[in-house]
């Protein structure tokens, strides 16, 4: 622990000040002595990286901070690599949102056709990071990836490399916090099961008691993420699926309602985020700013840094704490394959990740997880190979798509719109 290096890949992201705040807040548990902030957009890296330096200086950090566009230099000797890349930037996201709506399909950036396209662009980039970590990073280095769609990226990396990796998301930590706020205590145990952005809390039991509070909480403690329009949960729905859902389940529970909201909206979420990013970058460029600005909260990354730093320090200090992350199933969820990447409670320590057994679920959870996992595996394979047949099969397997007359032309248009970013599909 005397010398620890962190590499942040995609450090030009407007989320970076949130991550840096976490590093400074928990520096006693995770005392990094060197930071490498890497991005291919050198202008954004200069703006965001300079703010990161000011944040670290204010917190009393006296180690080395390197800003670089060279992946090798960033990874060299790194103990922890934090991935937060957006291939194609917001322009690609906006296309992902708008093109599916022409076909009356959802283009959300992680769910449905939008998440599919983002996976095709991002999987090869993160796989490259994972491969180069083997060459340049410290022995036993860990990749902690926040890049979306986090679950599909973890599926690709964990089943095609031997990289130490965690797929991380701020959705679980926010869901658990909302439960704690609702029952007014943190003294409880819970079960969490699902895939990334397709997950439920299926059990909430206060310590010393036996009653499962999840039925009373269902629909009341669902995490409301800023980038997901809320839906109404009526009593019949809550009886049918009596668990606490992540907000992304709203796309599955109320597909038509969500599509109508998107069609009526004057701007897509990507367009809103682009405006937010431009305003944030103006603030970040102020040389007098040395803290994370409050306006960043509108971007939707609540507790992002807490989740990342908590997971990393549990590994670094061999604390074997329990965190909800995306990892290989290895028998934790009985109805999924061992190599399926699932999002469940895991014990994190220096020897790796140990998923904890899940007991509480129903047939709906089982069926939806299996269907979406088939889509995820096909998407990962398509991203790696550039196989258009696998790409079409992925869209056909997805519960929100599954119609050939819609999926085929939509796929063709989206691939063409991403031609420069998807060379595997046009070789």
What descriptive keywords fit this protein?
12 strands; six-stranded parallel beta sheet; 16 helices; single chain; three-stranded antiparallel beta sheet; Rossmann fold; 427 residues; alpha/beta
Give an overview of the whole structure:
The protein has 427 residues and is α/β, with parallel strands linked by helices. The protein has a domain of 163 residues: Rossmann fold, CATH 3.40.50. 45% of the residues lie in helices and 16% in strands. It is built from 16 helices and twelve strands. β1, α1 and β2 form a beta-alpha-beta unit. The longest helix is centred in the N-terminal third of the chain and has 24 residues. The mean pLDDT is 93.
């Amino acid at each position: 622990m005397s010398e620890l290096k962190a590499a942040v890949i995609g450090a030009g992201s407007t989320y970076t000040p949130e991550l840096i705040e976490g590093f400074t807040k928990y520096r006693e548990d995770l005392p990094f002595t060197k930071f490498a902030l890497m991005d291919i957009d050198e202008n954004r890296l200069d703006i965001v990286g300079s703010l990161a330096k000011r944040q670290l200086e204010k917190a009393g950090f006296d180690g080395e901070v390197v800003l670089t566009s060279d992946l090798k230099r960033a990874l060299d000797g790194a103990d922890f690599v934090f991935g937060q890349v957006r291939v194609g930037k917001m322009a690609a996201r906006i296309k992902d949102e708008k093109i599916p709506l022409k076909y009356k399909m959802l283009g959300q950036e992680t769910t449905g056709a939008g998440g599919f396209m983002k996976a095709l662009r991002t999987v090869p980039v993160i796989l490259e990071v994972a491969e180069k970590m083997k060459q340049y990073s410290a022995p036993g280095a860990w990749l902690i990836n926040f890049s979306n769609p986090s679950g599909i990226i973890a599926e690709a990396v964990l089943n095609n490399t031997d990289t130490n990796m965690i797929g991380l998301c701020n959705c679980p930590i926010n869901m658990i916090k909302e439960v704690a706020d609702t029952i007014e205590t943190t003294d409880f145990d819970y079960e969490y099961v699902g895939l990334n952005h397709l997950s439920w809390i299926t059990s909430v039991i206060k310590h010393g008691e036996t009653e499962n509070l999840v039925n009373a909480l269902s629909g009341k403690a669902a995490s409301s993420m800023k980038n997901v329009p809320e839906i109404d949960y009526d009593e019949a729905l809550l009886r049918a699926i009596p668990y606490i859902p992540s907000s992304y389940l709203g796309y599955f529970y109320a597909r038509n309602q969500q599509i109508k909201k998107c069609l009526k909206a004057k701007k897509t979420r990507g367009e809103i985020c682009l405006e937010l990013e431009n305003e944030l970058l103006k603030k970040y460029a102020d040389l007098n700013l040395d803290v994370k600005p409050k306006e960043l909260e509108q971007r939707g990354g609540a507790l992002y840094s807490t989740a990342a730093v908590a997971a990393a320090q549990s590994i670094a200090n061999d604390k074997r704490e329990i965190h909800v992350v995306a990892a290989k199933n290895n028998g934790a969820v009985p109805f999924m394959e061992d190599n399926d990447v699932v999002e469940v409670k895991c014990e994190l320590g220096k020897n790796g990740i140990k998923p904890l057994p899940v007991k509480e679920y129903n047939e709906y959870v089982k069926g939806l997880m299996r269907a979406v996992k088939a889509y995820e595996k096909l998407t990962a394979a398509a991203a790696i190979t550039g196989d258009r047949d696998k790409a079409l099969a992925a869209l056909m397997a997805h519960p929100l798509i599954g119609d050939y007359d819609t999926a085929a032309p939509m796929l063709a248009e989206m691939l063409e719109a991403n031609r420069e970013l998807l060379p595997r599909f046009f070789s």
